Amino acid sequence: MDLSQVRYSNPEHETGHADFYKVLRKRVNQYFKDNNISRHANANMVLKSIFMVALYIVPLVFMLTFFESTGMILLMWALMGFGMAGIGLSVMHDANHNAYSKNNRINTIMSKLLLPIGGSPVNWRIQHNVLHHTYTNVTGMDEDIDTGILMRFSPNQPLRKGHKLQHVYAWFLYGFMTIMWFSTKDYVQLERYKKKDLLKTQNVTYRFMLISIIITKIFYIAIFFGLPLIFSSLPWYGVVGGFFLMHFIAGLTLGMIFQPAHVIPSSNYPVPDKTGNIETDWAVSQLMNTANFAPKSTWFSWYVGGLNFQVEHHLFPNVCHVHYSSISHIVRDTCLEYNLPYFSYKTFADALLEHGKMLYRLGHKEQVPAMVDAK
């Protein structure tokens, strides 16, 4: 179905929810006004950005200049993996949502931090901003749940025999997420977005994107693989292993943060009718298909860019994540007032456990009944 045909509506039985999002936005805007603070980045966000970039770049410098032991160099590769994930979660994510700064030039500059970690900001914005945030958990629209035949993230996708073990092998596949970024994914996405006429949403041409992706990939490989291959004391196979270790840590980290927020027992996976109509309000659909986790874990929230507050992020993607914890009370209370769900798991471990349970159910049942058991 064409994206232009898919739309959200507010059916008669949900008329009481019609003004939910309007009221919520008014209250959140009032919070920023009353406290005289910007909804964009603050000094702590800037310091975090510097730290995450340093966590990615400094270990590379050390392995090229100071360290010679295999153990220390592999440790540097591992730290780079956490730095790569940190940039993705805490820096470029906000910038690509135009939430980092009120100055769009700064957002554009910061969004390009996706390039040195192997990705394409343009493709990312189409996949994440245009598709995932608009059509969360809608099969055929949300590419975050359409990952090919190896995984079944929705009851509306075909069930295959191999899916019976997906709750076991999913964690291993998550580790390949960023490896796919720098190798094949951007090219595959570019072809798909060209066919779907989605490149126009970013005001770019296919030719420009193809050339830019090729050039940036060459620079990425030259710097983050070529330089260690030439200057580090490890043999070539050690560099290959370290490069893989970095990407596996980053991919696993990203997968473990993003998937438990949506592929969970409480998700309802909306389905458009034949005319493309989804019979629910957009904001209500976000609540039904998103969950928070570990809301009281300050340091965890700091590292993952506030993405443990996924409900707040999906309702207010243009607000910098440093404010999610503060506005979460407003969002929760407003949801309760309108008798709407506000799913939140007490710990990160709880969210991972429920995600694993959902993967098991999706791998064993053709249709998975909704089970609202978020804590």
Question: What can you tell me about this protein's structure?
Answer:
By secondary structure, the chain is an all-alpha fold. It has one domain (3-364). Helices cover 56% and strands 3% of the residues. The chain contains 15 helices and four strands. It has helices at 20-34, 43-65, 70-90, 92-96, 104-111, 121-132, 166-174, 177-195, 206-231, 236-258, 282-288, 298-303, 310-315, 324-337, 348-364; strands spanning 7-9, 277-279, 292-293, 344-345. A two-stranded parallel ribbon has the order 1-2. Helix 1 (20-34) runs antiparallel to helix 14. The protein is globular, with a radius of gyration of 21 Å.
The gist of it:
The chain is mostly helical and 375 residues long. It has helices at residues 20-34, 43-65, 70-90, 92-96, 104-111, 121-132, 166-174, 177-195, 206-231, 236-258, 282-288, 298-303, 310-315, 324-337, 348-364; strands at 7-9, 277-279, 292-293, 344-345. The chain has one domain.
Low-confidence stretches: none
- Main β-sheet: number of strands, strand sense, barrel status? 2 strands, parallel
Strand order, main sheet: write it out.
Answer: 1-2
How many individual β-strands? 4
Spatial gap, N to C terminus: 35 Å
Number of domains: 1
The best one-word shape is globular
β-sheet strand percentage: under 5%
Order of helices and strands: EHHHHHHHHHHEHEHHHEH
| Gyration radius, in Å | 21 Å
Fraction of helical residues: 55-70%
What structural category do the secondary elements indicate?
Answer: mainly alpha
Give the helix tally. 15
- Chain-averaged pLDDT: 93
